[in-house]
Automatic annotation (TrEMBL):
One cellular component (GO) term of this entry: membrane
Residue span of region Disordered: 1-47
Organism: Menidia menidia (Atlantic silverside)
Comp. bias regions, Basic and acidic residues: 15-24
PROSITE patterns attached to this UniProt entry: CRAL_TRIO (PS50191)
Pfam families: CRAL_TRIO (PF00650), CRAL_TRIO_N (PF03765)
GO molecular function, one term: phosphatidylinositol bisphosphate binding
The CRAL-TRIO domain, residue ranges: 135-300
Biased composition (Basic residues): 1-11
Record-linked InterPro entries: CRAL-TRIO_dom, CRAL-TRIO_dom_sf, CRAL/TRIO_N_dom, CRAL/TRIO_N_dom_sf
Highest taxon in the source lineage: Eukaryota
Protein name: (Atlantic silverside) hypothetical protein
Amino acid sequence: MGVNIKRKSTLPRRSMADQHDCHGISRPPVDSGATAGQSWFPGPPPPMYSCTLTPELEAKAREELQEKPEWRLRDVQALRDMILKEQPNLRTRLDDTFLLRFLRARKFDYDRALQLLLNYHAGRKAWPEVFQDLRPSTVKHVLDLGFLTVLPRPDPSGRYILCLRPGKWKPNDYPFVDNVRAIYLTLEKLIQPEETQVNGIVILADYTGVGMSQASNPGPFLAKKVVSILQDGFPIRIKAVNIINEPRIFKGLFAIIKPFLKEKMAERYVLHGSDLRSLHRNIPALVLPEEYGGTAGRLDMNAWSRLLLDCEEEFIVEFCQPDPLEGVVLPDSMLFEGEQASGKDDDTFRGLRSQLYYCY
């Protein structure tokens, strides 16, 4: 096993007020009234960092993420120093709570955490139609359609389950990017609690009703962007992707997605078909709704929608800000290649589209 050599902090620690004033980014306010109505999901963290992990989760973070409680804030300060020194023009939050997400997602490797942070902001610049004016009220139609929700009970490993139902969307309803907007807002909310940062999440994708119109609509260019953001541009650990009720054309769909997946992520995809017993071996029935053979009551698509919509002001502060990359010089190896890659990807799609029709 390789050993990560961490850089030591060389710059003086700055107060939170100084850091935020310098970069023009303030922390989203905590709406105690909204939080009180969301007791099934942990509320936002406090403005000043205070560890909320249980002793068991601290032990898990130490073992899986190389996180040492006694070094935690020192590591955050080291990452903060790197940002201020190497990317002084980057308009980003620098508070402990925010930076910890990136350290945990990259197992406290400073260089990889900084790269993830840059990717996180670069994704917004590369895909303005997703990130411009990104707030829950702009995707209410997606939420009302029942395209996604988060199940109210985490699995026995403490992982919340993001339930996607792509068959609910039809290309004539609204642009595909609106689905991506709703997914991204959901991930932003999911990653707030420290337990999610340590435990990760599980995705359950129900492909009931997915046909050729949905399967062929995004294309590989959009698929590549979505995968890139989830895999390399967002500080969350996706521990498993469970696919159920997949149609015959899913083989062609996966052929579009798989080239963009890292091997480790590709191995986390599990296809169950209509076999609920197979699903229950991965997600216990006690946390699943009745629709998926579970014992946790009927699937409620409204609770998560209400939760997101109650956080409108929080997302306005987070996303309706000036371009965080204005004046920033990014490395040549940045993740997102921009629109010039679309031609090549369209050629790839023409080759893969025949697979969709063959499977269909």
